[in-house]
Amino acid sequence: MSATVNETAAGLPAPSGVETSPARPRPRRISRYRLRRNATRVLGKILLWVVLINFTYVFLFPLIYMMATSVKTLTEINNPSIVWISREPSLQAFQFASSIIDYFRGLWISTFVSAAAVLGQTCVGAMVGYGFARPRFPGREFLFWVLLFTIIVPLPTLAVPLYLFYSKLNLINTFMPLILPPFLGWGVRGGMILIVFRQFFRGLPSELEDAAYVDGASPFRVFWQIMLSLAKPAILVVMLFTLVWTWNDTLLPGLVINDTAAYTLGQRMENYAQLFTQARHSSAKTWSTSGEIGENVLMSVTLLGILPLLIVYIFTQRYFTQSIDRTGLVE
Q1: What is the per-residue DSSP string for 190-214?
Q2: Largest CA distance in the chain
Q3: Alpha helix (H) residue ranges in 71-204
Q4: pLDDT higher than 50, residue 228
Q5: Which strand (E) or helix (H) includes residue 63?
Q6: Architecture of the domain delimited by 103-273+299-324
């Protein structure tokens, strides 16, 4: 019997008719290297979560503070025991803010200007970006480097020449200086828009154009029916970028629009912020009774200004995230 057990343990087949006990599995030993590697992975994930939570807090803190303060009353603003959550939430600050800045008029003006800029920069930017990416012509690279130079030059350095140029054309206090440049390829950060389209079109295979030319398609038809139909990710990215940049721009509107009735929403917010600062330092006692210097009103004005962009981003963030990876911006 002992010989049979020894033969089985040695790996030899046991004779027929003899019952054998199953071999005990050897205990699995975990090496120190594996333990160290698992511990390193766990610590790496913990550090990653800590960093992500800190960055999220830094970016979301202003928005959370803005939303929490905008629903407070003036009494709660002056109460140091109330920091975040309001005990009696109220929308009176929003009503006062919308009336003092004429919110709906500014919203209409900003929507009109931003929509025109989105349409102009998307259409013109796609054509110019395709011209820099696909056709070959003398001086293409030189012109592209000149285009890159326009991104480096800040707009404030061109403020005086732009004002003199628009004043000679009698376009001051009109919306033409805000609408016309995007249709000429020179909107807010227009050079960046052209680079986005150029990078995307350069990544498309040239066999698509060759096959279309063999079938007798014209260059414009190739661009319109083939290339532009494939450029939906780049178009979405450009539209959202242009919308945000134009909506938040106050430099160019403040340069060419001096009539308060024609102020964009960003100008109205900036104007009220200046009045808020002046009132705090000069006549705070006379303003405190009407509530105009309340921080809740200031936060309500700011939240109303960014609310349309937040709504647009909520509905388009998934498509925007998918498109940003296909435009060449992450390379």
Answers
A1: HHHHHHHHHHHHHTS-THHHHHHHH
A2: 114
A3: 74-77, 92-100, 103-133, 140-152, 159-168, 176-183, 190-202
A4: yes
A5: helix 32-70
A6: Orthogonal Bundle (1.10)
3-state helix, strand, coil in the chain (%, to 5): 70, 0, 30
Rg over alpha carbons for the chain, rounded to the nearest Å, is: 32
Which of 87-101, 235-249, 307-321 is predicted most confidently?
235-249
281, HSE (Cβ side, Cα atoms, 13 Å): 5
Query: Which strand (E) or helix (H) includes residue 220?
Result: helix 219-221
Q: Model pTM?
A: 0.76
Indicate if the pLDDT at residue 113 is higher than 90.
Answer: yes
Question: Is the CB of residue 247 less than 8 Å from the CB of residue 308?
Answer: yes
Is the pLDDT reported for residue 314 higher than 70?
Answer: yes
What residues contact residue 176 under an 8 Å CB cut-off, 6+ apart?
none
Q: Which of 245, 238, 152 is nearest to 198 (CA)?
A: 238
